[in-house]
Amino acid sequence: MIMADENWTQFVLEGSTNINVRKEILDSWNRCKQLGVSYEKEEIFSHIKQSDFVSRQQKNFDLINAAVPIMEEFCKRLKGGGYLLLLADADGYLLEVMGDHKSQKLADRCGICPGARWTEENVGSTGLSIALRTRTAMATSGIEHYCLALRGWDCSACPIFVDGVYIGTFDICRIGPKNDLKELYTLAGAGARAVTERYQFNKTKIKEQVLSSVLTDYVHKLNEKTGIISFDKNGIELFKNKPAQDFLMLFEKNKFDLKSKEKKIFSSFDNGSVLNEIEVDGKKFAIDSEVILSNDKQLATVIFIHPKTKLILPNTIVNPDYFAFNTKNAAFEKTIQMAVKVSKSDASILIQGESGVGKDYMARFIHNQSKRRDYPYTAINCAALPRELISTELFGYEGGAFTGAKLKGNQGKIEASNKGTIFLDEIADLPLDLQATLLRTLEEKQVIRVGGTTPIPVNVRFLAATNKNMKELVEKGEFREDLYYRLNVFNIKIPSLRERMEDLESIFNTMLSKACEKVQREKISLTAKAISLFQQHTWPGNLRELRNVIERIVYLHDEDTFDSFHAHEFLRADQSAEKTSEREYITYILHKTNGNRTEAAKEMGISRSALYRKIQKYSIE
């Protein structure tokens, strides 16, 4: 039955917009006219071919699986009432159509069937087409529909959202006129909510079964860096963890550089056949899959991605600053792997790198990996101690050895570190005469206190660090060659921060998060442009400079978002880069230590003489 009314006639035949209809309807009618939709349509002609429809069914399997039981229950309860139920996907294609004999007969005559596209461009104004466009619930009467083919129906449609994602629309129609639109609106809303709940329940149930199976039967395959991707029997992704997501991003980024076989790595997941090993961007991954069954039927396929080149560190790591070594840099990763291996030895290690790269972090990291981790770890900065105190600090003294000495004497740091580790930072600044004494301690494994004659046995592992070229110092006669080789049994070189910029974002965010937590303020979020600007900075002070910048941000930045403007403000990137940044860095440290240059040098990890040279270089007052 074709329905017409005065408002519709005035609009479509006379072009009048001064009519008494709802704004939503008038807006839709205007869009239909602009799109060139024919109001004379008495049948829906826009249908996709069968092969395309089958593909849509597969793509929307979970939605159909959740909605069909709901639609069947509705039809049972509304039987004989002339109701028609429609399920559309997110693109507006009808996936399911259900109704009683009366409504189905009229639907067939109008061409309302699975595969029809239900957008305004195809069917004009209806509750479903408007809901598809606006993503909001919409009820319409027949006289509000634009095309003649659909003016015999009243309808109401409600979008279906799952976890905030729009996946389709539930629509309920009834042969008109004079239907209660409020009733249709309520039914459509109830149907959409029921589909959402069932969809989430189905997914949760499958995920629980898959996870239970993985954790029960495949736990031997898992570690914190194992990527896990799960698909149901129809190829729909159930879940993936963070390592898998990282791998997929890397895979897509480098896909064009891979061999044709490698590009199809997941094409055969359904039969459990995947490539055993793949190299992406110079990194090797071992990949295997398992089919998970439920009642002898395939429930899902799980793919495990094992990074072969990634270092899996022991559980003994207790260094809170380990994040500084959580690297994506292949060369530094090998350095860390070497550090883990040599930590098992008792031989001395020389750690080299620029000021502020984290040599002290590395020393503590090695100690915590070693069998000495339950015994003392002592760090001494050879550049920070006055010349006259170094010997007593290291080797201790006997009672009465000098004016002001304790009557009972005092043990030195080496003696106090027995069975543990002693870390000598800035070893290049150790005076030559004390170098000889240290060499004797290393060779004889005993110390003699200042003012004493009795050797005291010690069992200590020595770690040393410097930011200087030790070979040049040896050639110049400023450092003993025999001590150099005694300390340099193993050599660990830590790259500067600018040499591993791929790690900056992770380190920055971790440090910033810890700093915010420490002062009990809300977390600060950095924009991509701010990170990019920080990555362009040369960071002459390395991790130490980075920590200082972050400390300033935490105390001085009042907003919760930190963008490129703020980064410019804190780095003064608009001025000459490295010199300005280093000058600003030194000025900040001097301000922090209230002008105490000894404390400033200690904070920066350099000698006082080096600090004086820099102060003169940059004309710092």
UniProtKB/TrEMBL annotation:
Residue ranges constituting the Sigma-54 factor interaction domain according to the UniProt record: 325-555
Signal peptide range in chain numbering: none
Xref: Pfam families: AAA_lid_14, Sigma54_activat
CDD domains associated with the record: AAA
InterPro entries linked: AAA+_ATPase, AAA_lid_NorR, GAF-like_dom_sf, Homeodomain-like_sf, HTH_Fis, P-loop_NTPase, Sigma_54_int, Sigma_54_int_dom_ATP-bd_1
Keywords for this protein: ATP-binding, DNA-binding, Nucleotide-binding, Transcription, Transcription regulation
Segments passing through the bilayer: none
Protein name: Sigma-54-dependent Fis family transcriptional regulator
Species in which this protein is naturally found: Neobacillus pocheonensis
Lineage, top ranks: Bacteria, Bacillati, Bacillota, Bacilli, Bacillales
